[in-house]
Amino acid sequence: MPHDHPHHDAPPDPMTERVRQLEERLVAQGLVDPAAVDAIIETYAEKVGPRTGAAVVARAWTDPEFADWLARDATAAIGSMGYAGRQGEHMQAVFNTPTLHNLIVCTLCSCYPWPVLGLPPVWYKSPAYRSRAVIEPRAVLAEFGLELPPQVQIRVWDSTAELRYLVIPMRPEGTEEMTVDELAALITRDSMVGTGLPVAPERVSG
Amino acid sequence: MGFGPVRPEVNEPVFHAAWEARALGLTLATGALGHWNIDESRHARESLPPAVYLSSSYYEIWIRGLEALLDRHGLLDPAASVPHPRRLAPGAVAQVLAAGTDYTRPIAGPPRFRPGDRVRARNIHPRGHTRLPRYVRGHAGIVEAEHGGFVLPDANAHGQGDAPERLYTVVFDGADLWGPDAEPGTSVSVDAWESYLEPI
């Protein structure tokens, strides 16, 4: 019978137990140092995340030379800010315009630019998103609350190789006086995947 | 339609359970041992029985894939218990993650396709690993960019070496892929290795 509260005497759930036993064996066999596992977890739980991508986008909004570099060689431009590594080895920046909206998906698995966005959210890895983003992107965007005018073309980028995509959203109006740090606060993770737009400035200051 | 609505989670945590974090860490730490590459590990996950794959959470798929790889490579042999020579040291983690892996390879000869060329994604159904999605096979698209040589997953997943080929971004019109039911004004691109494509 299902319960919605934990039992203190209940056995651990099956995946907890399965992974614990696997780790025990890997450690006993000399294949894994558990402190290295801790260090990997700490990296992605605390150090790497979408604030990195927001810094890249905010700089692109305020530094036209950097934006050009990003368009030509995103790996080098992002690397110059100190951001590089696993699942971001070959970066591509794709720029939204008034007539073009970019959306990123990985239909085959869950490829995602870790160094600039961190680990992907569950929805990005879900069969629903992976299958439907290429077939009916406007319907998917509507489920994120994003309705684009019909004249805006949608380009869906399926990350089928080792190229990793970062959407550069358009800079919101009314942000001319804002600093790079203030701009970065407007830039959401979803706006860099294409399932959202940057936050309007009045919603941040208010 | 299909798998139903996408359900974004507000203020989603990086991990939803402690075991998910361990699953990520174990997968990356064992990958550093050098017995398999990213293509073989993707193939191990994607070779799970479809019903298992679709009903498992993401990190459960990772764990099942990792168990298959450890078994295939005989790494859980109880007789061996000396530390692996390439066991990832805690102090090396930051450097390894920051370095990543370069998947580009030099490639001789001119590209077969140029930006602007019309091409067709080949109608192929390989028995092994591939990164050509089914939904573009047999469809015509336009080459948008040529990216130089990259390791070919179809070979690399099966221990057949890098077999590098040029990689192209190919754009397909939504209406060409999905017919009259396509949403208007949409296009989809894939990154396709040269052998995935044929000239029109």
Tell me what you see in this structure:
The complex is a heterodimer of chains A (206) and B (200). With 206 residues, chain A is an alpha/beta fold. Chain A contains 12 helices and 4 strands; from the N terminus they run αααααββααααββααα. In chain A, helix 8 crosses helix 9. By secondary structure, chain B is α+β, with helices and mostly antiparallel strands. Chain B has 2 domains: 82 residues, Orthogonal Bundle (Cyclin A, domain 1), CATH 1.10.472; 96 residues, SH3 type barrels (Roll), CATH 2.30.30.50. In chain B, strands 1, 2, 3, 4, 5 and 6 form a 6-stranded antiparallel sheet that branches. Chains A and B meet through helix 1, helix 2, helix 7, helix 8 and helix 9 of A and helix 1, helix 2, helix 4, helix 5 and strand 4 of B. Strand 3 of chain A pairs parallel with strand 5 of chain B, so a sheet runs across the interface.
The amount of beta strand of chain A, in percent, is: 5-15%
Largest interface: A-B, 75 and 88 residues
Helix content of chain A: 40-55%
Largest sheet of chain B: 6 strands, antiparallel
Oligomeric nature of the chains: heterodimer
Number of strands of chain B: 6
The appropriate CATH architecture of the largest domain in chain B is Roll
In whole angstroms, how far apart are the ends of chain B? Answer: 33 Å
Classified in CATH, the superfamily of the largest domain in chain A is Nitrile hydratase alpha /Thiocyanate hydrolase gamma
Radius of gyration of CA atoms of chain A, rounded to a whole number:
20 Å
Output the structural class of chain A: alpha/beta
What descriptive keywords fit this protein?
heterodimer, A: 206 residues, alpha/beta, Nitrile Hydratase, Chain A, 2 domains, two-stranded parallel ribbon, 12 helices, 47% helix, 12% strand, globular, B: 200 residues, alpha+beta, Cyclin A, domain 1, SH3 type barrels, 6-stranded antiparallel beta sheet, 7 helices, 30% helix
